[in-house]
TrEMBL record:
InterPro entries: Macro_dom (IPR002589), Macro_dom-like (IPR043472)
Pfam entry (one): Macro
Domain Macro per the UniProt entry, residue ranges: 1-176
Full protein name: O-acetyl-ADP-ribose deacetylase (Regulator of RNase III), contains Macro domain
Annotated organism of origin: Halanaerobium congolense
Domain of life: Bacteria
Length: 177
């Protein structure tokens, strides 16, 4: 699915965040220590190789909502943005913290003068954020932030399952149509 949001192409696809070769920066749903793990962090660190953890060492720990950037090493991208999502039911106010992840990541990508960025559904795995609420927050945040972005031309959401893709698509239709 594709939308035009204030001159930025917004795409929703079903796929793997570690296999987006046409994107300059991919976002990692990181842990505070910026180490490998399960889910997105595991896929990104596996594909990037051990140098990614090394590069992360001096930047950790990060706070909930914060975003930092490193090289992407063996990934087919230039950079990885690492952001720490809220744990649902624990880190509060969770909606604001989740929005901050997207906002801070987008601003960081913009500062680095990059044209394209891909996001996973931050916090919706191990951190337990319900997918529909997370879709609403992430897509609304893109809508609100898009006007402030001059360099970024492509924002892609990479959803890992068909059902998450369907939820995102339905929410996007409401927000952007
Ligand atoms: P968090 O700890 O922020 O919840 P997870 O990595 O556990 O992060 O999960 C975030 C979301 O990413 C979940 O919806 C999960 O299904 C999805 N996911 C897991 N692996 C991948 C991948 N390789 N590419 C894209 N999304 C993924």
């Amino acid at each position: 699915m594709k939308y035009n949001v204030a001159g930025i192409e917004l795409q929703l696809i079903e796929g793997d965040i570690a296999a987006q070769p046409d994107i300059e920066a991919v976002v990692n749903a990181a842990n505070a220590q910026l180490k490998t793990g399960g889910g997105v962090a595991g896929a990104i660190h596996r594909a990037a190789g051990p140098k990614l953890e090394e590069a992360c060492r001096d930047l950790a720990p990060i706070q909930v909502g914060e975003a930092v950037i490193t090289s992407a090493f063996k990934l087919p991208n230039k950079y990885v943005v690492h952001t720490l999502g809220p744990v649902y039911g624990q880190d509060k106010p969770e909606a604001e913290l989740l929005a901050r992840c997207y906002k801070n990541s987008l601003h960081l990508v913009e500062e680095c003068q990059l044209k394209s960025v891909a996001f996973p559904a931050i916090s919706t795995g191990v951190f337990g954020y319900p997918i529909k609420e997370a879709a609403e927050i992430s897509l609304k945040t893109v809508k609100e932030t898009a006007e402030e972005l001059k360099k970024i031309k492509l924002i892609r959401f990479v959803l890992y399952s068909r059902s998450d893709f369907k939820v995102y698509s339905a929410v996007a239709e409401k927000i952007f149509d």
